[in-house]
Amino acid sequence: MRYEVTAKDPDTIDFAPKNEVEEVLQNVRTILSTTKGTVPLDRQFGLDGTIIDLPVTLAKAKLTNEIFQALKRYEPRVKVEKISFSGDISGQLTPKVEVSINGSE
Predict the structure, then answer these.
(1) pLDDT per position as a tens digit, 17-33
(2) Given strand 78-87, what is the order of strands in its sheet?
(3) Distances (CA, A) of 68 to 17, 40, 105
């Protein structure tokens, strides 16, 4: 089964997810919404914040690579199926990541 996850600020963190799928999807959201360098004991966690100043096409390419690498390292239970972006007139990119969870139906 495939799930679509977008980067957003987590309002609440569920410390006791109902199942593994919810846990994995929450982890993916956390990775997508965290900027590298902001986690004190793991400065490599998250996505590179310097991408924000790049032209849109270059930012998409670099962000796609960052997402693949971060999910491979920090949430190996997912397989990235597709990455797309939505944006607004201000140039803000929002990644939409479609993942499947290894070992689930």
Answers:
(1) 899 999 999 999 999 99
(2) 2-6, 93-101, 78-87
(3) 24, 22, 22
The CATH number given to whatever domain includes residue 93 is 3.10.450.40
pTM reported for the whole predicted model? 0.88
> Which structural domain, as residue segments, surrounds residue 48?
2-101
Query: For residue 64, which phi and psi values (nearest 5 degrees)?
Result: -60, -45
CA distance 59 to 32: 15
Q: Which of 1, 100, 95 is nearest to 48 (CA)?
A: 95
Q: Round to whole Å and give the CA distance between 32 and 26.
A: 10
Number of compact structural domains in the chain: 1
